[in-house]
Amino acid sequence: MRSLMAQAVTMVILAMVVITPALAIGNSSSVIKATCAAVSQQQQLYDYCVGILSADPAAANATDARGVATAAVSITAHKAASTLQVITYLIHELNTCREIYGFMEEKLASVLTDIRAGRFDDAAVEKAINATGDSEGCDLMLFEGNSHKDPISDENSDNMGWVNLASAILESIVSKASKRGT
């Protein structure tokens, strides 16, 4: 399914072919409206087309459909470059999260080794507690990072819940063991 912006740009470009030269005469607002009317079968798309193009100085100053099409393609190119930058930031930030979760996995494997060996001491609890901050760090970095997007928020929250639960269980075991030992 093509995005609404891609549809609008395609229709604006196609409008260059269908709009008569008479429509190109007049102020830029009428050129934008005529161009959008020629390519929009739906009111919602028409409103979107007029809205985004009217906000762009190049489109607002266009004297014909070619100028409007040029502005629409320029806007789209700018948006694509902006999206590419967000993706680049996300890749970097998600790679950092991958490292965080790799380290978290190693720490939790060490906790499992301690549990299986019957070592329910403060070290095992401390290792589990240390693992809790890692998913929070990933969440924080994604929210406050350059991308300002967190595509793994649910997973980070789930991991936080599980680590907190495991830590609480281990703390309970250590607490019971210390009460028996005193």
TrEMBL record:
<feature type="signal peptide">
    <location>
        <begin position="1"/>
        <end position="24"/>
    </location>
</feature>
<dbReference type="InterPro" id="IPR006501">
    <property type="entry name" value="Pectinesterase_inhib_dom"/>
</dbReference>
<dbReference type="GO" id="GO:0004857">
    <property type="term" value="F:enzyme inhibitor activity"/>
</dbReference>
<protein>
    <recommendedName>
        <fullName>Pectinesterase inhibitor domain-containing protein</fullName>
    </recommendedName>
</protein>
<keyword id="KW-1015">Disulfide bond</keyword>
<dbReference type="InterPro" id="IPR035513">
    <property type="entry name" value="Invertase/methylesterase_inhib"/>
</dbReference>
<comment type="similarity">
    <text>Belongs to the PMEI family.</text>
</comment>
<feature type="domain" description="Pectinesterase inhibitor">
    <location>
        <begin position="31"/>
        <end position="154"/>
    </location>
</feature>
<keyword id="KW-0732">Signal</keyword>
<dbReference type="Pfam" id="PF04043">
    <property type="entry name" value="PMEI"/>
</dbReference>
